Amino acid sequence: MSQKVRVRFAPSPTGPLHIGGVRTALFNYLFAKKHGGDFVLRIEDTDQNRYVEGAEDYIIEALNWCGIPFDEGPSTPLKTGPGKEKRFGPYRQSERKDLYSQYALELLEKGHAYFAFDTSERLDFHRKDHEAKGKTFIYNWHNRLKLDNSLSLSAEDTKSKLDSGEPYVIRFKSPQDEKLHLNDIIRGDIEIDTNVLDDKILFKSDGMPTYHLANIVDDHLMEITHVIRGEEWLPSLALHQLLYNAFGWDTPKFAHLPLIMKPTGKGKLSKRDGEKGGFPVFPLSWNESEGYREAGYFSEAVVNFLAMLGWNPGTEQELFSLEDLVQEFSLERVNKSGARFDPEKTKWYNHQWLQLKSSAELAELFSSVLAEKEISREARNDSYVEKVVGLIKERADFPSDFWELGSYFFEAPTTYAEKPVKKQWKEDTPQILHDVAKIIRNTSDFNSKNLETKIKEWISSNELSFGKVMGPLRLVIVGDLKGPHLFDILAMIGKEACLVRIENAIKTLG
Fold this sequence. Notes:
It catalyses: tRNA(Glu) + L-glutamate + ATP = L-glutamyl-tRNA(Glu) + AMP + diphosphate. The radius of gyration is 33 Å and the shape is elongated. The N and C termini lie far apart (79 Å). The chain has a three-stranded antiparallel beta sheet with strand order 3-4-7. It is mainly alpha-helical and 510 residues long. It is built from 20 helices and eleven strands.
């Protein structure tokens, strides 16, 4: 690619990001970095009625948390010095609105657009009239000369309406009887009959452009080379191509990403689906919604599973760091068909990334939970917590699982799981545990290997089954039949704690 790659993510600041939006940002970022290009954040806030305070900051925080920061955007500093002028800003459309009118006028002068004065009531009448006849009303070549616009009016009448301040819009004049040839990197060649296109509104009399005009003008002025966006924009591709043609500008390459489907595979995943289904669909929390960060996901896991929603690496590999993704990513390997969102698979990714973290890193996260549980500072010293995490992390999907998996390392059980008690606690169990307590008390070199050797030798010499001893012993130490290697647990909690727990259980269970 001779021209420097420049891509953009252009969300509207209207509330939380949808998971599809974050994936769009990720794919733009990966493509830019793969080709040594720039990733631009542009805030499309022309619709001030839907603007939500704080949404822009949230978008920026979300991208940073995912580890996909932008090279240019609203918060990037001005580049100063020779040859470093900030050529492409500002990056909020509301701050660029003075730009757009000149381009709307250019289209008018070239005959690619026209003034339309039709009232909403009149258009509504035409729609209902068409519906009554079993037709669909489209404002385009076949009826525009019968409607209230500068194509059907004389120049004098048009000027009179404009001079009197009559409300108007500027519509694009779609060509008649043409075959429009489009190309999409993911979907290949597409042919459109221009007769089916309507004359979209580009500019309103309040001085604000519609999305279509602002989008094209901004992409051109910001020298965007590749437009990578969601499939929902595919119906707009014909108009956008026609606008580039009308201005005489080079067209960027387009790539429309597949939809993200509900877990059932039927229908597009919505923000509401996540709240209903009990899984977050935003990378960070928004107002009352839980986000991936708050749910305990690692950003590496979120990025990994987002990348696999619609992209196929061509191998069996499933775990990719951001650096791996930059190396491997290509738009040619993005699927055309929708990608099914699987909440269980997202947990699987988090489990895999948790296993790749060091015990020291995870212990730091667990320590804050222990502090909330009011575990003493002495009991939660760094070295001990790190060892505990090392023993239990393979069973965890999230750091928040550590307490349930390993609370017995920090406090003695006060209750015992009902089913194991019924199954394990026999008439002779208290005596067996008294004998095991003696071995524990008399073991001077108190480590896992030594304890295992002594207790197993005692079991064998007394011709007992291992289940008769090991099950009840685990039950009284842990409170349930769970946890890592039992002798590791005994060694970790220490001799005195072992003896106290055995004694308490015998008193409690009889």
